[in-house]
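ESCALATION

Customer reports they have been waiting on this structure for their group meeting. Please prioritize. Original submission:
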Amino acid sequence: MKENKENKDVEWVSYRNINVDPDRYEKKIAVQLINETSFREQFTGSRRKLYVHSKNKGSKYKLCATTTTSKSKSGKGQVKGDVFNRFINEFNNCLAHQLYDNEPLYNLIVPKIGKSRIRNKDIWKEIPIGFRFHNIDLDSAYWQILYRLGYINELMFDKYIRLDEYKDAKRFCVTMLNRKCFSKDTFSSARYNEIANYFNSKEPQCFENQKLLELSNPYIIDGDEYYQIILKNVRQELFNVMHEALNGISNFFHYATDGVCLINYEDFIRMSNYFKSQKLIFKGSMCTKLDENTYSCGFREKNFK
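Update from on-call: job pushed to the front of the queue and completed.
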């Protein structure tokens, strides 16, 4: 896949000393242009990354600067500012290393078995107001699935799984995989001639070939497609886990992504045992039907929709 190719010619480094403000980033771009150094820019949402080509590194691109063009204050939930940015950088580094170290992840395609949402309106209408029932849901479901599939390592998983203040930030790690991502290569004249000579030696007049014209195009879709595959795999694995947990259980009235409202205590125990067998962390709550549209779940009030 395209991301696989990029991983092999990019040298991975820590974000710690390369996160700069937009003005400093533009100055680094100017230096590369003045020195006629080949470089690559990657754009993911508001995030920009600068990779500089180095022959001394085996023709690899080294990540030397990153910045964001977003003017809004970064943060999700209780985690904001530099703490949020450090967490996202840590996640990105962890994901990159997991992909780099585990080549089978590039070929992973999770088939979809389960559904994302089910409502049994007939059962909801039958139960009286004041009826008490059980809710069971996975803690930080997407975070657990990222670890289950191998996209984050055990150290990263354990560090944040119990930290409730990172709940929204952990969810953001998954949703940001759906952002548009592309790269722009800027070649020095020497580097461009080197590439042209290489391809022409393999196939005469190759730059007239449409396939190789795409390689010479400065705009290349790099991570967009593959990151969306990761997002799709995480979502479908979660749906499949819930589908297996609900196998043989029909007496429920609401299932949405990572939580289920169950009528019988026996079904609650059955699902609990399944999650335990899969080493998944979950929590249970007592619920009460308040009226035809709402119910309480623990200390919160939810709509039946």
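Sent to customer with the following note: Residues 114 and 239 are 5 Å apart (CA to CA).
Escalation resolved.
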